[in-house]
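Thread amino acids onto this structure.
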């Protein structure tokens, strides 16, 4: 197995040269529907972005990490909150509701040592902070980022480019 130096330069072009949205135009409708669902106002946009940033960090996607960091900065989130998402468990910058949401995305994306990924006590914690519509929206926000994980990890769009045009 070949190892890569930690100082190796990463190519600044996408792995997949064709834009998946142009190859499969139906993707635009699916993407728009997911954004509409997660933008219904029942969960603060900042919470959704925090959850999606954590998802990008968990799976090691620079594209998603840069994208959601940018969304949070544009929304006026503090650098302390943004940079401590990776260590949210011992960070003083998050509300109990945000902590429940971050715990939920971690449970969904990381294998459980034993038992269910989302045990009943975690579900109860999240449900205590989010009314049913909001909890459903949060589930779809996690699903939304999971939908885009495959694109981010397989096609490797260029980090830092416009969300609408990462293939140019």
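Threaded sequence (168 positions):
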């Amino acid at each position: 197995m070949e190892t890569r130096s930690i100082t190796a330069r990463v190519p600044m072009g996408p792995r997949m040269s064709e834009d998946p949205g142009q190859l499969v135009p139906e993707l635009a409708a699916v993407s728009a529907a997911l954004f509409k669902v997660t933008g219904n106002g029942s969960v603060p946009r900042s919470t959704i972005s925090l959850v999606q940033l954590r998802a990008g960090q968990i799976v090691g996607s620079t594209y998603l990490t840069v994208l959601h960091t940018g969304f949070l900065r544009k929304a006026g989130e503090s650098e302390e909150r943004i940079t401590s998402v990776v260590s949210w468990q011992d960070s003083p910058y998050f509300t109990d509701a945000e902590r429940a949401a971050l715990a939920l995305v971690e449970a969904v994306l990381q294998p459980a040592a034993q038992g269910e990924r989302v045990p009943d006590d975690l579900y109860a914690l999240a449900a205590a902070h989010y009314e049913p519509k909001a909890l459903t929206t949060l589930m779809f926000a996690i699903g939304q980022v999971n939908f885009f994980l495959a694109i981010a990890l397989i096609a490797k769009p260029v980090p830092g480019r416009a969300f609408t045009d990462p293939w140019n």
